């Protein structure tokens, strides 16, 4: 099992202790980021990520990508597309990630990647990566129990499919599967940057991911780990979670 590690939260390089990935076969994707705004900096990084993913898919492998936030999923999908695979997206997250620059009241760019995959604000990342926007009906948003009003309004009128973790409505054809670990109930996974209670258990999420992977239609798996540096028993809990998700 080869893991592609993108050890960043947005344009911040994170310490190795943030990612207790299992096994010795890890391909780190790092670079000295250029001057400029955050979009220019992560765009430069994500060009390398998308190229690595495209090489792996083109060589017959299924990329397993671990990173510090959900934005990396844009680069993963772009790489899959570059390899000639027309994949839909299945997005596990406690949040919606469907803000635009205009709709976000916080300005937190980690709340925007799924909407960008659907074509919003394409000049920020998608155009640079060669990411072709997906039609809304080819996106499945799983859980998303914590939505801002603007996100709820968008989803209410969109064709994005929504479902729970235990009953994922898969689109036809190949899939990029994205899992933000904060989809797991905050009580089961300590140390999250954006914890949300009332969610599915760790084991429920892992079993759902296993069922999807078992279909044989997952072209790439992207796992986002937006958590703080580990304390106490956090490292062991996270290592077991990543092992189970990546081996699903």
Automatic annotation (TrEMBL):
InterPro entries listed in its UniProt record: Ureohydrolase, Ureohydrolase_dom_sf
A UniProt-annotated Pfam family: Arginase
Record flagged with keyword Metal-binding: yes
Keywords: Hydrolase, Manganese, Metal-binding
Residue ranges of coiled coil: none
KW Disulfide bond (keyword) present: no
Record-level Gene Ontology MF annotations: arginase activity; manganese ion binding
Gene Ontology CC terms, in alphabetical order: cytosol
PANTHER family: ARGINASE
Family, as annotated: Belongs to the arginase family.
Protein name, as recorded: Arginase
